[in-house]
Amino acid sequence: MDKPLNILKESCLYYGASLQGRQCAASAVLGTNRMLPAAINPRSGIYMFPTSSGKSQQCIWLSYYLIDSFKTSGQYVHICFYDGSMLEVQASRRIIDNQYKKTSQVIANLNRPLLFQSVF
User: Fold this and answer.
1) Over the stretch 65-118, which tens digit does the pLDDT of each residue have?
2) From CA 85, how far away is CA 81, in angstroms rounded?
3) Strands 38-41 and 46-50
4) Which of 45, 38, 44 lies closest to 21 in space, CA to CA?
5) Which of 26, 90, 106, 109 falls between 20 and 30 A from 45, CA-CA?
């Protein structure tokens, strides 16, 4: 069974970029190098973000557009997906919320030229 990072790397390559390149772009948008989201395939809306350091055994990568909501329960966050399924993640709500917002910033930045091409 492949590790999550290997799957992300292969997925990025499949869509014509490296994971390192995708995260370098995210770093330029966000001004940080920590816990970067990855735009696996921006055209199809495939954006993933980690719940902790990507090298951590406890890291879970979540797909931005599949998340419906998240709720705190003690030291866990319950991630609710649009298909009705749920995942319990050992992380703080602040971390999940920050990761979700960071991914939103990357999405907005990558889509700006498409949305405002007639303005510029």
Assistant:
1) 999 999 998 889 999 999 999 999 998 999 999 999 999 999 999 887 666 665
2) 5
3) antiparallel
4) 38
5) 90
CB 74 within 8 A of CB 91: no
Q: pTM of the predicted model, to two decimals? A: 0.88
Distances (CA, A) of 115 to 15, 41, 48, 92, 111: 22, 17, 22, 33, 6
DSSP 8-state class, residue 66: G
Report domain extents, the chain: 4-113
Contact 95, 56 (CB under 8 A): no
pLDDT higher than 70, residue 120 = no
Contact criterion met (CB below 8 Å) for 39 and 27: no
C-alpha to C-alpha distance for 8 and 47, rounded to whole angstroms: 10
